[in-house]
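Re: the 243-residue chain
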Amino acid sequence: MNAHMTPSDTEVRLRRDLADAFRICHALGWSESVGNHFSAAVSADGQDFLLNAKWQHFATIAPGDLLRLDSRSEAVPDGPDAPDASAWCVHGTLHRRLPDARVVLHAHSPYATALACLANPKLVPIDNNTARFYGRTAYDLSFGGIADATEEGERLADALGDKSVLVMGNHGITIVEETVADAFEDLYFFEKAARTLVLARSTGEPLAVLSDAVAQNTADGWRAYRGMAEKHFAYLRSTLPPL
């Protein structure tokens, strides 16, 4: 947090960032009817978090529309503004179990979802973008339908562990990061990486897979470019129409 920002200032900024992330996601064609969810921890301990309301279209979400929820509260699912069951199952559990997961973005972007539907959905390092996620990606291959049961959320938290990307087999992608901009940048680059891999595999030719050493060196090299996220997010935000 900036030394001159109060907790309430931080929440105001988080609300704006998260609301804009929804609208950017829709503009890129990654929204899905009125489903899917993004969340961001707003309390220092990571337990209170912001989440989109039940069945509100991404294109319409404003900062004031976001719910503030307590991940430890058993009363949330029965409250008057309760999120849908899958949102609470996944995001409520991740924020409760993983307090360092400040921002959690879940989407069914086309190529990431296509990759997740392969028998082997591993993101193989074959270029800069695929190698960006080397050593950072976890996989959950135990899809059991709509993720709306408590055990589903617990399993996803276990699968994610200390990674920042979770490929959800037969489902989609979940990104965990410190800021909305950083999480969105990973969502953006994972979709590009998945597209490259799906297109390369579609040729039927063998992949030119990077060695572990080169893949790790490439992943490490991306750290110096972390500041790209804020600039990219600011540009995408500038293209949004007023609500």
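The mean pLDDT is 94.
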